[in-house]
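Task: encode each sequence below as structure tokens.

Item 1
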Amino acid sequence: MVDIFLPHGLGPDGKWFFEKALFEREFRDVHDLARLEIAARLLDDIRSDENLIEKEGRFSKGRFNRLYPHPAIKIIAENRAIFIRVITALGLDIVDDRGGQERLF
């Protein structure tokens, strides 16, 4: 068994996720705790980028007044895909006994 501490520097979303995941599952492996921290930090990054887009707008005008999507939109999509892979690797996205999909996160 490994001593578990809340990682330093997590934001509200990351803290919530980290604590909820620890409550839902028992993590004994140091590697799984590292993956859990990565997922928590990804959630914080996603929230930060969403706030930035809300502040600056989804599009900006470039040269010749052409509209361009905010660069953070692509980063959010990539971070969400990585987050899904990490929680799947941790077993936090599991199939229940009835064969239906149970999503903890």
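Item 2
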Amino acid sequence: MEDLLNLIGEHHIKFCWIDKSTVGSIDPSNDVIKISPYLLIAETLMHEMVHCQFPRLDEVETERRARSRIQRMTVKEIKRMVDFAIILGGKLC
């Protein structure tokens, strides 16, 4: 664990939107790690919503449908869905 914490400390971390297919990236030229929390949350939320709608689907099909739905959404819609979920129903546990 100590090695991991040291490695994290050697990089600059930014939480920002990257694009609809990238949840994280690193730019080795300046040691910047970018993480897209909106996309991470949106993908997880959509995956679980597909499970709710289609409880008998296997994980592969659930993931395919969730990704397909995310890809059809605009960036604005993705951010709005995540904001809506956090404001109205999200609780840290």
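Check on item 2: The longest strand covers residues 12-15. The radius of gyration is 16 Å.
End of task.
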